[in-house]
Amino acid sequence: FCISLENYPGYEYCYTVVIGEPEKLEVITNMIEDKKMLDLKISGSTEYFIELNGVASKYSASNTSIQLKSGLNKIRVYTDQSCQGLFEEEIFISQELRYFPNPVRDVLNLYIGGDESSAELSIRGINGKTLTQRSIDIPAKRVFTMNMSQYPRGIYFLTIRNSVTRKTIKVIKR
After folding, report:
1. What Å distances lie between residue 135 and 39, 47, 131, 140, 162, CA to CA?
2. pTM for the whole thing?
């Protein structure tokens, strides 16, 4: 655009105005399950805010790792310019669930990691139909003993859920 004055012929100043926009926020994540770590590769700015479960921290490195906790982890990544976008992801880190014996005849032992005192247990048949759904108390030694004798031979899917465990296992009943 140009500015000129009527009373001053030949007076004219011209300007070029370029209105740019910042780079888009880009986030690539890589979960390292055995260490409960999340690697983040971030681009689009020189400073980033990473919020984990409601607690925000400022970072200037484009490659960052954050330690996750057991249970649900809510991750948000953003910059000081909202127009660059927002990255959000939820990652559930489940506690360990071990079981034995498998195949099972009568009694299935479930080792349920964590420190929760209860969980929801469900058993589905191979057709997906829920056969059992109930709340269980987890013993202090973390081993829940389950009577499988009432179930006929076949394949079952057993799910354990609480705030720190979400696991489904395949159990073969002899």
Report:
1. 36, 46, 14, 16, 10
2. 0.72
